[in-house]
Structure formats: C-alpha cells, structure tokens
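Researcher: We plan to redesign the surface later, but first we want a full-length starting point. Tokens attached.
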C-alpha cells in the first residue's frame, strides 16, 4: 500500500507545466513511438549542454514583398519571396503562412524559444513603410529559425520552406501532417536524447542555480531592452523632427544674411555672399542627413530589440516547465524517505527531470550564443553607420569652409 503512493498532481490545470505536457512526462504518463527522424540530441559542449548542431546549416533570404490578389481582385495580400540556400528554389509565402507555422512550432516545442513574428496590423497593411519594416522583422525571424539546430530541421519548417507555392494540394497535405504530429506536449519530451555515462546525471541544485541565474539575467535584459528601445525611439524622433528643423533654421538664417549682403553691389563681396549662401545650403543638407539617419542605424537596433523582447517573453514559461520538474523530484525524494514510494519510481522521475533539465540548459546556451552573435554584429553596424554619418556631416562643413578660401 505504501509503495503505491504517487507524487501529487499540480492542481492548477492551466499551469505551463501542465499545459506543456511537462507534468505528464515527468510522472511517466507519456508514451509514444519515437521515429529516428524525430530524435533531438542534446550533447555536452564546452559550455555545458547544447543542442546538437545541424549537420547541414542553411540560410533563407526574404525579399521582394509584392501585392497580389485573389477571388478576381476582391482580396489583396502581400507575398514574400523566400529563397532557402539549401534548396535554391524560391517560394512565396503570405504572413498568414508564417503565422500558421509559428503556432505549430510554439505548440510543439515547450522548452524551445520560438521567435515571435512581427506584430499584425489591421490598417495600413499595404503602405510601403509598413511592408518594409515587416520584411526586416521577418528576415530577423527567419535568421533565428535557420540558426536554431532543432527548429531549422523541423518537418513543418522544412515544408514551409520547400513546398512549391503553386502546389496547393501538396501544401495542404504537409499542413495536415504537421497538425496531426503526435510528438507534441508530453510526447515531445520523449524525443529528446541526452548524454549517458559519467557526468550525464546533472546535479539538480546546480541546475536550479543556473536556471535562477538565467531568470535574473532575462529580467534585467528585458528591463534594459525596454529602456534602450524607448531612448532610441525618442532619439530617432528628435533627429527626424527637432534636429532637422534646428539645422535648417540655422541654414535659413545664414541664407537671410547672404541675401542681405547681396544688397551691397560691391564686386569684391560677391565671393563672400556665395560662400555664406553655400554654408546655408550645407546646414540645410545636414538637417536632411539627421532626418534620414535613424533608418540606417537606430531602426535596425530597435528591430533587433523587438525580436529579443519576444524571446525574453518566452522564457518564463520554459523556466516554469523546468521548475515544475524539479519540484516533482523533490516531492518524490520526500515520499521515498517517508516510505510512501518505491525508489525505482522516484529514480524514473529524476531521470525524466534530467531530460527536461538538459533541454532547458541547451536552450539557454543557444540563446546566449545567438545573443552574442547578434548584438556584436548589430553594434558594429550601428557604430559604422554613425561614423559614416559624421563623416558626411564633416564633409559638408569642410566644403563650406573651402568656399571662403578665395574670398
């Protein structure tokens, strides 16, 4: 009678731990046939657990958003041209196709951060600025999908990238297959293969400490990303309106001065008048440079921050699944000590928690690896654009200065 006791169930049926299938898996209630193609391997890398690298890495460009129609022109939509490097075959996808794929993957992978898509918009969907901004957001999204060893190889994603746009039947078949995928929820955890042998059992206290550290990190990163986004937005707004206006006001004042000087008909003052008029034009042009600059440097930074804010919003649920598994292990150990549970059953719970811990730490490691890559390249781009900008401003001022040489 004593050995038949089980670890208590989580009473909150809406908990992420329950919804993700984490609880059913840890308690040994998940069962299903895992095909070789469904196996996801976690390996021990120099930084700890990592997803096994994709042996055939690829990239995918998103270009040429074009307005298309159907139902004899009654319905309009934007289609994006996708060209995956591993197939070389272009396909066209609408935002709704991206949205469908995102929904499938978010449901399938409870401990993987599926990047959020750029937000939907009801009005102004066909305006050039919105289409351009969405394309850039989708390009970042696609880069993160292709960079993830698990998401990049997922059947649904590969179907999305490779199914010919004109073959509606094949698209629907692949879509139905993805929607009938049984390796979701509790069964997803069955597909994870972790290292075996010495060092393959993770120290639960160490795991808890690492996850708590990451939780504190994501909270701080989220706060600073919000602050930087607000500051960049405000600075961009000032450049587009305020700075442009102020520089052009200075330009206008110089122009007024040159016009006043022109009333003096002396031949020897003509050179000065022209130089001052040129200075006015230089300040006018600098105003335009300020207004155009955020598009080149601040906007890309804000696009990156938006993508990462989506990732950061995913991690509380991922961490909750891991925490739920650790709680079940602690409960099972207590039950063994009280003689309410057989050691074998408790060992099974710990083993399955170990799998969730390996997957969570692998995902955390992947996040940090991609974060360093992205922020390095984006900060380099930002500073290069800033340098180019100030070189252009300096050039305008030097041109104006040289106009006085012959006065």
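Model: Full-length starting sequence:
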């Amino acid at each position: 009678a004593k050995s038949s006791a089980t670890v208590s169930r989580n009473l909150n049926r809406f908990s992420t731990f329950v919804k993700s299938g984490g609880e059913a898996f840890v308690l040994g209630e998940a069962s299903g046939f895992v095909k070789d193609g469904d196996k996801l391997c976690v390996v021990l890398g120099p930084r700890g657990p990592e997803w096994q690298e994709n042996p055939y890495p690829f990239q995918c460009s998103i270009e040429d958003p074009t307005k298309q129609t159907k139902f004899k022109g009654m319905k309009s939509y934007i289609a994006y041209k996708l060209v995956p490097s591993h197939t070389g075959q272009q396909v066209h996808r609408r935002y709704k196709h991206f949205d469908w794929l995102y929904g499938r993957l978010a449901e399938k992978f409870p401990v993987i951060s599926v990047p959020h898509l750029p937000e939907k918009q009801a009005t102004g969907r066909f305006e050039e600025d919105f289409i351009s901004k969405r394309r850039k957001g989708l390009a970042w999204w696609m880069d993160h999908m292709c960079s993830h060893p698990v998401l990049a190889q997922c059947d649904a994603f590969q179907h999305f990238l490779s199914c010919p746009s004109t073959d509606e039947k094949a698209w629907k078949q692949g879509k139905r297959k993805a929607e009938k995928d049984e390796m979701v929820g509790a069964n997803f955890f069955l597909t994870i293969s972790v290292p075996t042998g010495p060092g393959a059992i993770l120290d639960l206290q160490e795991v808890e400490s690492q996850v708590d550290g990451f939780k504190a990190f994501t909270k701080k990163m989220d706060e600073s990303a919000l602050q930087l986004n607000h500051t960049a937005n405000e600075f961009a707004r000032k450049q587009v309106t305020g700075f442009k206006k102020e520089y052009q006001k200075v330009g206008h004042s110089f122009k007024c001065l040159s016009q006043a000087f022109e009333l003096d008909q002396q031949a020897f003052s003509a050179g000065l008048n022209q130089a001052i008029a040129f200075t006015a034009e230089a300040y006018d042009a600098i105003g335009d440079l300020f207004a155009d600059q955020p598009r080149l440097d601040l906007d890309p930074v804000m696009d990156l921050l938006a993508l990462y804010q989506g990732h950061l919003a995913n991690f509380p649920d991922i961490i909750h699944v891991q925490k739920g598994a650790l709680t079940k292990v602690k409960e099972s150990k207590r039950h063994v000590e009280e003689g309410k549970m057989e050691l074998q059953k408790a060992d099974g719970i710990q083993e399955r928690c170990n799998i969730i811990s390996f997957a969570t730490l692998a995902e955390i490691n992947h996040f940090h690896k991609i974060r360093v890559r992205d922020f390095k390249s984006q900060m380099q781009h930002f500073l290069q654009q800033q340098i180019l900008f100030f070189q252009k401003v300096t050039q305008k001022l030097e041109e104006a200065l040289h106009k006085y040489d012959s006065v």
